[in-house]
Design brief:
By secondary structure, the chain is α/β, with parallel strands linked by helices. The chain has one domain (4-230): Metallo-dependent phosphatases (Purple Acid Phosphatase, chain A, domain 2, 4-Layer Sandwich). Helix content is 33%, strand content 18%. It contains 9 helices and 11 strands. The strands form 2 sheets. A 6-stranded mixed β-sheet has the order 1-5-6-7-9-8, with no helix packed on it. Strands 4-3-2-10-11 form a 5-stranded mixed β-sheet. Strand 8 (196-198) and strand 9 form a beta hairpin. It starts with a strand and ends with a helix. InterPro entries: Ap4A_hydrolase, Calcineurin-like_PHP, Metallo-depent_PP-like. This is Metallophosphoesterase. GO terms for molecular function: bis(5'-nucleosyl)-tetraphosphatase (symmetrical) activity; phosphatase activity.
């Protein structure tokens, strides 16, 4: 099963990307209303981590059902899948990271969420007039987008999947090297006060789920469109 979803250019409306949501869909909806987001024409691409920490985690499946909303699997969705599949977890750490809402669900409900989360791609690729834009949760484990996409066509090596969903290395070492084959790569995972660009990698988790704001990035212009994010 391929772990990447590709999207042709949007000729009717605009495409946007958003950082980690973490169960704060009401705040996200307010941010979308503020930019006149039109679900009949526009599309929203998410870096994942739809759940944990916030009060509206149960809405995640409703959002994933929307034809205009597309998300990669973040590490928090992966944790839910691991739990249901019987993999090892540090449950104290999982609860501390906001996973209590999931652990407290019935087994049937856990399975319903985990089944949908397991089908989320690891990567998105969106065509724009100026070239393709990629979306991952944390970082790209390969210097070349084509090399990474080749891994996504089959069983992804566990170390590469872990890097894709958990790595903070690029920000920690201020790595400016671009990912070749992409106009831009959009990621989240690490909360920042303001969006940051390293090479052609945009880090857009600006804590909309916490005390920050949601950064909404227009993919056609690679510009932040919500006023709070530009301040």
């Amino acid at each position: 099963m391929s772990r990447i979803e590709r999207f042709t250019i949007n000729t009717r409306g605009r495409d946007y990307a958003v950082g980690d949501i973490h169960g704060h869909f009401q705040r996200l909806q307010a941010a979308l209303l503020a930019i006149d987001f039109n679900p009949a024409l526009d599309r929203l691409f998410s870096v994942g981590d739809l759940v944990d920490r916030g009060p509206q985690c149960l809405q995640a499946l409703d959002w994933l059902d929307q034809p205009w909303f597309h998300a990669v699997q973040g590490n928090h969705e992966a944790l839910a899948v691991t739990h249901v599949s019987g993999g090892w977890l540090d449950y104290a750490q999982y609860r501390a990271a906001g996973g209590g809402w999931f652990l407290d669900l019935s087994e049937r409900e856990q399975s319903r969420f985990a089944e949908r989360f397991a089908r989320m791609p690891l990567a998105l690729e969106i065509e724009t007039a100026d070239g393709p834009v990629g979306v991952l949760h944390a970082d790209c484990p390969c210097a070349s987008w084509a090399e990474w996409c080749a891994h996504l066509q089959g069983e992804v090596p566990p170390k590469l999947e872990e890097f894709c969903q958990w790595s903070r290395r690029r920000l920690q070492v201020d790595d400016q090297r671009p990912i070749t084959g992409l106009r831009a790569l959009i990621v989240g995972h690490t909360p920042l006060q303001q969006a940051k660009v390293l090479g052609n990698i945009w880090h857009i988790d600006t804590g909309g789920w916490s005390r920050g704001h949601f950064s909404l990035l227009a993919l056609d212009t690679l510009s932040l469109v919500n006023a709070t994010a530009r301040e």
